[in-house]
Design a protein that fits this description.
The complex is a heterodimer of chains A (122) and B (107). Chain A has strands at residues 3-7, 10-12, 18-25, 34-39, 45-51, 58-60, 68-73, 78-83, 92-99, 109-112, 116-120. With 122 residues, chain A is mostly beta strands. In chain A, a hairpin with a 4-residue loop joins strand 7 and strand 8. The model of chain A has no long low-confidence stretch (mean pLDDT 96). The model of chain B has no long low-confidence stretch (mean pLDDT 97). The chains are: A mainly beta (122), B mainly beta (107). Chain A binds chain B through residues 37, 44-47, 50, 59-62, 95, 100, 105, 107-115, and chain B through 32, 34, 36, 38, 42-46, 49-50, 55, 87, 89, 91, 94-101.
Chain lengths: 122, 107
């Protein structure tokens, strides 16, 4: 079955970096766009970044542009989120999510991991 | 950015009730809308995509409709496992945005 497992979260000081990773299984990874969505404690959902199935197109929410970078390795079935210059407001549970079947539905998130927590605090 | 609002913010209901949640977009998004369900401590689950298409394995008591700026999610007969928070999400344009959520809890 489809599985997404995030890792790499932790507690860091403001200004430091973290690299999140999401390992997937159970589907043809190279056929799906992948996304990161975050949820601050007790808050709603916020889309963070997306990467096309082939890695050739990437998009970010404005608040992370220039600080976060999404990438993928289709040979290893993994997607990463490099987070630099972290801020207190980046504190959240970070979910990896799969884009839907077909390019038409690529921006619906049909499978999610359980999330990895990131806490940015001095 | 496209802003999504949801109403009500919370609804108290009983098993067997019909529940309707509304999502409104700040500009037209055609049918580029999804609905998710989230239970405490769990990841969100896709229920509906393309405004009205039922995701596989989602019970048919869930239905949705709408286009443009106004959308609805309906649970025809609320079950115990449906008590959760429901979010809408627009996939029309970047940045993708979510509604603030509607909590469905026990009356």
């Amino acid at each position: 079955q489809v599985q997404l497992v995030e890792s790499g979260g932790g507690v860091v000081r403001p200004g430091r970096s973290l690299r999140l990773s999401c390992a997937v299984a159970g589907f043809t990874f190279s056929s799906h766009g992948m996304h990161w969505v975050r949820q601050a404690p007790g808050k709603g959902l916020e889309w963070v970044a997306s990467i096309w199935y082939d890695g050739n197109n990437k998009n970010y929410v404005d608040s992370v542009k220039g600080r976060f970078s999404i990438s993928r390795d289709n040979s290893q079935n993994t997607v990463q989120l490099q987070m630099d210059s972290l801020r207190v407001e980046d504190t959240a549970l970070y979910y990896c999510a799969r884009g839907g079947n077909s390019s038409k539905y690529a921006y619906y998130f049909d499978y999610w991991g359980q999330g990895t927590p990131v806490t940015v605090s001095s | 950015d496209i802003h999504l609002t949801q109403s009500p913010s919370s609804v108290s209901a009983s098993v067997g009730d019909r529940v309707t949640i509304t999502c409104r977009a700040s500009q037209g998004i055609s049918t580029w809308l999804a609905w998710y369900q989230q239970k405490p401590g769990r990841a969100p689950r896709l229920l509906i995509y393309a405004a009205s298409r039922l995701q596989s394995d989602v019970p048919p008591r869930f239905s949705a409709s709408g286009s443009g700026t106004d959308f609805t999610l309906t649970i025809s007969s609320l079950q115990t496992e449906d008590f959760a928070i429901y979010f809408c999400q627009q996939a029309n344009s970047f940045p993708f945005t979510f509604g603030p959520g509607t909590t469905v809890d026990f009356k």
